[in-house]
Every structure is written in C-alpha cells, then in structure tokens.
Here is the input.
Amino acid sequence: MYSSETLSVNQKFTPASSSATAPPLPPFGAAPATSIPVSSANQTYNWTTPTYAPPPRPQAPVPWSSALCCAGGDITNFCITCWCPCITFGQITDILDRGSPSGFLNGAIYALLRHFTCLHPFYSCMYRSRMRHQYNLQGSSCGDCLVHCCCESCALRQEYRELKIRGFDMFIGWHGNMERQNRGVPAMAPIMQQGMTR
Here is the structure.
C-alpha cells in the first residue's frame, strides 16, 4: 500500500517534472500578473480592470404645466370634477394605467371609497405620485397627500390639465389615443413603451 521508500525530515520533496515546467518567479517588486493561464500551450485570457462609472444623473424635475387652483378655461371639466370627481379620476387613471384596468373601474372604486369610507384622497394621491414620477414633475409624496386631502377637486383638475397639455384626448381614453396615433392622426402624446416586445 505504501512505498517502502521514505523521506528523511531534512530531505526536500521535489517532483522531477516540476522543475522543467514551472514558470520562473517574477523578480521582487515586479508588476502583478494581468492574465490567467488557460492551458500549457502558453494561451492566456486577458482582462481589463473594471472602472467605476457613476450612474447617470437624473434630470431635474420640471414644474407642473398649470397652477393648482387654475380653472384652465375648461368649464366642463370644472363642473364634472366638482360634482362627480369619480369621472375625472377615472379618465386620469385610464391614461396613467395605460388602459388596464379601465378608468371606469378605478372611478367606481373611487366613488365607493368616497361614499362609504372617506379614504378617496389617499387612493387618488397614489396616482398623483405615480404621475409625478412618470413625467418627472416637481413635488413630493407628502405634498401629494396634503394636496389631495385639502383640495381634492383642485388636484384632480391639475392632473387632468397636465395630461391634456401633454396631448392626450381625455374623453377617448388610453386605447383611443393609441388607436388615433396608429392611424396616423398627428398625436402629441408621447409614445409609451409597453413592457417587453419582440
């Protein structure tokens, strides 16, 4: 099982083949290796040292297109938002959700929350925050909540005007705007990328 030959304590073990194939050691203070040997045929894999690149700076938030308490000349929207804000909210969410779920469903949820729980400002302020992030608008989450709690109809009208100024026809919804854009009707609305495409 074991070889009968033993090495003495003072004797060094050196394989016969190691001295012939071992590369010479670099001199003291030499530059470190920059490649990895791949095989014994002197092939190497070279790599570059990764450099740190800072992430791109986000653009500064832009102001809203209209003031919070501005009527904007749209008397119809003013009246609808004052007397039945669930309709305006449904139109806004249809555009922000890109038609799924429908604005009608979101408007119905808003109406139920308003009628039974008075939690509708918290539901609508989530969409204001979403809109701010989507269009890089000025504001904060706390400010969104305060605006919707203190003056819900003003906040909804401002969001409605912002989307209208950006080129959306609020009465035809997301799918209508996309259909109008695909037919070649000049649309001012930005093209929204939808998830992964082939």
In short: The chain has a mean pLDDT of 79. Strands lie at 35-37, 44-46.
